[in-house]
Structure formats: structure tokens, C-alpha cells
UniProtKB/TrEMBL annotation:
It comes from Streptomyces salinarius. Signal peptide: none annotated. Keywords: Methyltransferase, Transferase. One of its GO terms (molecular function) is methyltransferase activity. The keyword Transferase applies. The lineage of its organism: Bacteria, Bacillati, Actinomycetota, Actinomycetes, Kitasatosporales. One of its GO terms (biological process) is methylation. This is SAM-dependent methyltransferase. Residues 95-118 are annotated as: Disordered.
Length: 301
């Protein structure tokens, strides 16, 4: 949570041992993904996403961002090659036009308009690389999104750059490309919890271990991909959970703790994660962590 929260679906290909992938996909879609709703809304509002938008969502996962764009009238295509479990949820969501009911918590909610979207064409969910989204009978994409926060795992920026290189040929000249990442660590309460992942995974020193976001992560990815930066913004994305158990499940679903599980064991990670969440628990038992996320808008030359 993709954000960094999230390497949201890295939790599947190359997941930690003994992971129930269906349960993890469900935890992501029902608990964690909706923490990013303010980010999706801010980007769509700024870019005036609507009936003239043809959107390609990279790493679309369980499809909530696609669903919200479709609710605004956009024609949406999602691609992901890492999690059949998440893509199955995305297909179900987009077929019914509604997100699953979340566990109760006092956090951001999905917009209530999702059930009454104006269809701009049947949504497409593609299990595979971006080039599989090519449709010679349709206009080029006008918006490409990579909402999975980058810069939070060692090596993920390089992976995103390669993904963009395969996706941008499908976009129109001047099309917007949106990248997302965590804001400054000092403005993200969840940073203190994510440091558990870094502490426990350090013995491996492996790719995929968590690190704090850096100021220019998004700009560097855009530059490598040959994109032209065209504005940025920050969005408050608080993480709110019904209780500590829900918080642990949601955070584990991001995949950010997989390297820690490999270096130690699931029980130790659960224990230390629960302890790290304790300062963020309110008297009624809910967990609340204010965070700020960044997004960068770049343009296809």
C-alpha cells in the first residue's frame, strides 16, 4: 500500500512462503486498497477524467481505480501479470459496477457513484504485459496510470521504467502518464510501522526490501522512460482500520513485508507489526495513521 504502501500486488509473484494468495488478494481489495481512494480522486479531478478518456491502468490489481474512472464515464483497460487472484476480483468488480463491502472502519470510502456509472465501452482486464492491451480498432490511450506507489522497494523504480517503456507506445502523443509514491517520511505516520519491514529484512539485504521514499523517485522514473514532467501534487491518504488485526492483514497484503517474512518467520513479523501499530491505536480500538502521497503527471512526447 502498491503503497510505501504498496507494492500492492508484488505480494503474488514471488510472494513470501506459506501465503494464502486468495486471502491476501481479498485483504488487499477489502481492507487496504481503498486507502488510496483520495489519490485516485485527486488525479481524476485534476485531469478531468470523463467520457473522452481512454485509460490504461498498469498493475491494475483488483481494479478499484479502474472502477472509479469508469464511474466518471472513461473507457478503461487494466493490465497486470502478477496476480490471477486480484484480476479475478477486478473482473467481478467491473462486471457488477460495485466494490466489495469493506470491513467497518473510520477511513476513506469508495465513492457511492460506482454502482451507477455511465459506460463508455466494456472494461477490459488483461492478464499479461501492456502490449497485450493494443487494439488496432480503437483510438490510442489518452491516460496511463501507474498508481502502485513506486520507490518503496529496492529495485522497483527500474521495473516500473521498463513497464512504462512497453506501455507508452500505446498512448497518444501528449497523453498523461501518472506515477504515484509515498510523500516525505516525516509526513507519513505509517513510516514507523514500515520500518519493521526494513529492520527484519536487513539480514537478507535482498531486492524487494522496504526503503523510505526519496524526493525525486517519481521524476527519475519519468526521465528514464523519456516522459516530460507536467505537474505534481500531494494528497492526504490516511490509513484507517477497524482494529489492529485488520491493520496487520491490510499491511501484509501490500507485499512490503514479504522479505521480512523470508528473513524471519510470519509469527515474528505479526508480533512486531502489532507492536509498531500500538501507538496508532485509538481508545475505541481503531487504528489511524495520517499519510501523504505524491503523484507526478508526465506527458508522452
Amino acid at each position: 500500500m502498491t503503497p510505501t504502501l504498496v507494492r500492492q500486488h508484488s505480494s503474488h509473484a514471488g510472494a513470501a512462503p506459506h501465503v494464502d494468495l486468495r486471502a491476501r488478494a481479498r485483504d488487499w481489495s477489502e481492507i487496504q486498497e481503498r486507502m488510496l481512494v483520495p489519490l485516485y480522486e485527486a488525479v481524476y479531478e485534476r485531469l478531468d477524467v470523463g467520457g473522452d478518456t481512454r485509460m490504461l491502468g498498469l498493475g491494475c490489481g483488483s481494479g478499484l481505480a479502474l472502477l472509479m474512472a469508469a464511474a466518471r464515464g472513461a473507457a478503461v483497460t487494466g493490465v497486470d501479470s502478477r496476480s490471477p487472484e486480484l484480476l479475478a476480483l477486478a473482473r467481478r468488480r467491473l462486471a457488477t459496477g460495485t466494490p466489495e463491502e469493506p470491513e467497518a472502519y473510520e477511513g476513506p470510502r469508495s465513492p457511492g457513484t460506482c454502482g451507477t456509472r455511465a459506460r463508455a465501452g466494456a472494461p477490459r482486464i488483461i492478464d499479461g504485459p501492456p502490449e497485450n492491451a493494443a487494439d488496432p480498432t480503437a483510438p490510442a490511450f489518452t491516460l496511463v496510470t501507474a498508481f502502485e506507489p513506486t520507490g518503496c522497494l529496492a529495485g522497483d523504480a527500474e521495473g516500473l521504467g521498463a513497464l512504462l517503456a512497453r506501455a507508452t507506445p500505446l498512448a497518444a502523443r501528449g497523453a498523461a502518464v501518472v506515477l504515484a509514491g509515498w510523500g516525505p517520511p516525516e509526513r507519513c505516520a505509517t513510516t514507523s510501522v514500515l520500518r519493521v519491514a526494513a529492520k527484519l529484512s536487513d539480514p537478507l539485504r535482498a531486492a524487494g526490501s522496504w526503503r523510505p521514499a526519496l524526493r525525486d523517485d517519481l521524476e527519475e522514473v519519468a526521465q528514464r522512460a523519456g516522459l516530460r514532467p507536467d505537474g505534481s501534487g500531494r494528497v492526504a491518504c490516511p490509513f484507517g482500520y477497524a482494529d489492529t488485526g485488520s491493520a496487520v492483514r491490510g499491511l501484509l497484503s501490500t507485499g512490503l513485508f514479504d522479505a521480512a517474512v523470508e528473513a524471519t518467520d510470519p509469527e515474528q513479523v505479526d508480533k512486531e507489526l502489532t507492536e509498531a501499530l500500538h501507538p496508532h491505536q485509538r481508545p475505541d480500538g481503531t487504528v489511524w495513521m495520517p499519510n501523504v502521497f505524491r503523484y507526478l503527471i508526465a506527458r508522452v512526447p
